[in-house]
Amino acid sequence: MHALIVVAHPDPQSLTHGVAAHLAEGVTLSDAGHSVEFADLAAEGFDPRFSAADLGLHLRDEAVPADVAAEQARIDRADALVLVYPVYWWSMPGLLKGWIDRVFTNGWAYDDRSGTGVAKLLGRLPVHLVGLGGADAGTYARHGYFGAMKTQIDHGIFDYCGARVVTSEFMLETGPDHANAHLETARAVGRRLFVTSGRYEATDAA
Description:
Elements: E1 2-7, H1 15-30, E2 35-40, H2 41-44, H3 52-58, H4 66-77, E3 80-86, H5 94-103, E4 110-113, E5 117-120, E6 126-132, H6 137-142, H7 145-161, E7 164-171, H8 178-191
Parallel strand pairs: 1-2, 1-3, 3-6, 6-7
Antiparallel strand pairs: 4-5
Helix pairs in contact: 1-8
């Protein structure tokens, strides 16, 4: 099976990239037949700006831009979508949000036809979310950030398209060796990515 890992961080030496690499290692170690593709949005120079062309596509007046079509093709090839990103302002980075804004289009991710309701078109796609936060679990729990992020990302984005969020993992500060712990957690997430068709209990914190 094939996983698409989308990474949104400008520094290839960052912990975010390290987590993505260890997750990929876990995928391939779990079964020699599994494969991984990386979408490094910063290195590839993906343009996250929602332009007039994107609006035209949303309104069904224009064709799919070439860069959007290429991203949709990568997702179509995948049996699982994995997003690995640092938490910025209690959400995902603008680069990743812009990727979703532009790629999860009307007519591909969902079909919003006037008077007929919304058809969810990504029901086949399991999604795995791995966010790296700069605070501890107590801060997230005290201010309700776990629930807020699940509402806006898990439900607000992916459920709207019918994609099932299987993993919702927050890797938070837990002590002086939290980076190594995160890498091991990432490898474990990768190992179980395709276990029983991706059906296992999602977690709230690393």
